[in-house]
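Sample entry copied in:
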Amino acid sequence: MDKQRDFVLRTIEERGIKFVRLWFTDVVGTLKSVAIAPAEVEGAFNEGLGFDGSAIEGLTRSFEADVLAHPDPTTFQILPWRGEVDPTARMFCDITTPDGQPAVADPRNVLKRTLAKAAERGFTFYTHPEVEFYLLKSSKYGKNGPIPVDSAGYFDNVPGGTAHDFRRRSVRMLEDLGISVEFSHHEAGPGQNEIDLRYADALTTADNIMTFRTVVKEVAIEQGVYATFMPKPMSEHPGSGMHTHMSLFEGDANAFYEAGAKYQLSKIGRQFIAGLLKHAPEITAVTNQFVNSYKRLWGGDEAPSFVCWGHNNRSALVRVPLYKPNKGQSARVEYRAIDSAANPYLAYSLMLAAGLKGIEEGYELPPEAEDNVWSLSDTERRALGYTQLPASLDHAIQFMEESELVAETLGEQVFNYVLLNKRQEWRDYRSQVTPFELQKNLEML
């Protein structure tokens, strides 16, 4: 760590960095930033930077307001969109109390705690997110809703299109920040794009997702358009998910791989999926944390609404992708409910905790779904034992309230704050009179 600190201090001097942004995340997943002068960085490494945590969503209660932000030197990067005028860098921070204890409500610390539990069992947790988002002409919207930048579809090549330039610039910028991109393409909705980040350990991935959102927003501003990670900005078009591929490694060996097993999926892999399925309804208020998230989950377009798994079945909640011969290291499972607006630290904590619970308790994996689950009738789904994911944020809160797994993983303070925040959102939403109601009822009633 000392070598890393020295590298940061040397780079700041050599590259003429004028500002260093210290980044951290609140409980809802909003990125927070405070800029310090280069001369303050060494002090921040040694002592942390003090601030009032009670002003940040869910971070502390008012009577324990003082916290310290400790920059993590391994996350140091120069921000490419700032250019050569007043070069600026960033580091992610861990939040502690004044006596040096990790702040229980720091989302990054919640994930670190869960990863430490996995490490005690000999596992490293890797994730690979496929992040979808919409590019709109602006953040303003008219009677017909937001206006996308194009009318292209899945994998479309749009000569001279905004999305091409946008993706090229975004990918270049992400690579400059040390974030490897696997591929990028136009998605199914007009103006909808997807950029997939390469596999990394879950903490690195969560940091990368927070950086990714910032890069996408910055590039959009630069190009005169607007990017949104809202789960379902347009009712008639697909929502934006963040399908995440996951695997556990024991040392250099993929714990999900077993040569000769069905789909080359080991017992540990099967139990991990069983844990995800059993606890999926409880974790949905975090993986899908907004009222709007449920418009995506229940809006069709391959969004998963029912708790089941399948081999390469895109209507299932958990998918086991096609096996690549002689590539045991790539064995993985894909969780398809999580959307692009989730707090990645908390969501990945709960997805990992659910999978680990399945391994610890030896959960049995139910039979796989071989049909398109959406095309089955309710009676057929019931007969096959496919329960549904929560149908609304209110429904999801009810599952979460009863969950020992979520309470234990998030810790009491984060658990209570998420519930408080989400209940308030539901109350605010429930009190709205929507255009749908006015169109449907005003003249008729």
The first helix runs from residue 2 to 14. The mean pLDDT is 89.
